[in-house]
Specification:
Layout lengths: L2 E7 L2 E6 L2 E6 L2 H8 L1 H15 L9 E5 L2 E5 L1 H27 L3 H8 L5 H16 L9
Antiparallel strand pairs: 1-2, 2-3, 4-5
Helix pairs in contact: 1-3, 2-3
Length: 141
């Protein structure tokens, strides 16, 4: 195993890899910010569209078929999804950096798992659980 996260006490964890140990704590502030990503991403999308002289309505395509009016929201929905994923990723990486002093990518490189997608995803998932205070050592789940 390249890394291990150990739950020491409530909201107190240790990430172990190689000969390193990083003490971490759950972060309510980041979790609160994560819950706000939906509204923040919508606001960012609206502001970016406004800078281009557009509105959200410009992303909705209206069609008339057999005398009935239809609205296609797929472009708006896809753009909103892209903005939300970008915002969640930003907030998550900030949280990882606050907890460990490194971004997720830097940790994967330092642990030497950057080419192992499965291990990077496991690290990401477990760090998210630590952030939320829900992590349990695998043997104790």
């Amino acid at each position: 195993m390249k890394f291990e996260i150990i739950k020491n006490a409530t909201d107190d964890y240790t990430l172990k890899y190689k000969d390193k140990e990083i003490k971490m704590h759950s972060n309510v502030e980041i979790m609160t910010e994560m819950q706000e990503t939906g509204q923040n991403s919508k606001m960012n999308m609206i502001m970016d569209l406004a800078k281009k002289g557009m509105t959200v309505g410009d992303l909705i395509i209206e069609k008339v078929v057999d005398g009935k009016k239809y609205q296609d929201h797929s472009s708006k929905d896809e753009m909103a999804k892209m903005y939300e994923e970008k915002e969640k990723s930003r907030v998550f990486n900030e949280g990882v950096k606050k907890m460990t002093g490194k971004t997720l990518v830097e940790l994967c490189i330092d642990i030497e798992i950057e080419n192992d997608v499965e291990q990077c995803e496991k690290l990401s998932r477990e760090l998210g659980e630590v952030m939320a205070g829900r992590f349990q050592n695998e043997g104790h789940k």
